[in-house]
Amino acid sequence: MSEDSQAFERTTRLLDGAATEALGARIAAGLDVGDAVALEGDLGAGKTTLARAILRALGVTEEVPSPTFTLVQEYETPRLTVRHYDLYRIANAREMGELGLDDALDEGAALIEWPERAAGRLPAQTLHVALSITGPVSRDAKLSGPAKWAAHV
Ligand SMILES: Nc1ncnc2c1ncn2[C@@H]1O[C@H](COP(=O)(O)OP(=O)(O)OP(=O)(O)O)[C@@H](O)[C@H]1O
Ligand SMILES: [Mg+2]
Known about the structure:
Blueprint: E1 8-14, H1 17-30, E2 36-40, H2 47-57, E3 72-76, E4 81-86, H3 93-98, H4 101-107, E5 108-113, E6 127-133, E7 139-145
Helix pairs in contact: 1-2
The structure holds adenosine-5'-triphosphate (ATP) and magnesium ion.
C-alpha cells in the first residue's frame, strides 16, 4: 500500500473557543500510539489551547501548563501516554535529540508546538494543524496529513 503522508487536506473554520475544543476532541478520538500532531501558527494562534483540548478529551484532569520553559510535559491518559512539546526555545539539534521524540512515539503520541524547530525529525505520517488568527475569537485550522485523519477531523 502506498502511504501518502499528505493524503488529506482540509481547512476548518473555528468560530470560537468551543469550536477549537470540539476539534481537539475529534483529534483525541483518532489519536493512537505512534501519532504525531504538529501544531503550527504564530504566537497566540491557539496551539496550547488546542493541545489542552486534546488532553482534556483524553481524560487529563490535572493542569496543562504551556511547556514553554520545560519544553516537554508528559501525561498518562487512560488510553495512551502523550508528550506535549513546545520547541520554541530549543537551542539546537542535540537538544532536540535529548527530548526523546522517537521514544515518545514508541510509547505513545506527541503534540508538538513550533514543529518547524524540529528540523526534519518529525515522522512522515504527522498530522499538521496550522492555526491562523482570523478574529478575536476565531481561527482557521488547516489540517493535513495521512488519510486516516480524514475520518476523524
Ligand atoms: N477559537 C480560538 N481557538 C483558540 N484560542 C483562542 C480562540 N479564540 C481566542 N483564543 C485565545 O487565543 C489565545 C491562544 O493562546 P495559546 O497560548 O493557545 O497560543 P499558542 O499558539 O500556544 O501561543 P505560543 O506560540 O505563545 O505558544 C488564548 O488566549 C485563547 O483564549
Ligand atoms: Mg503555546
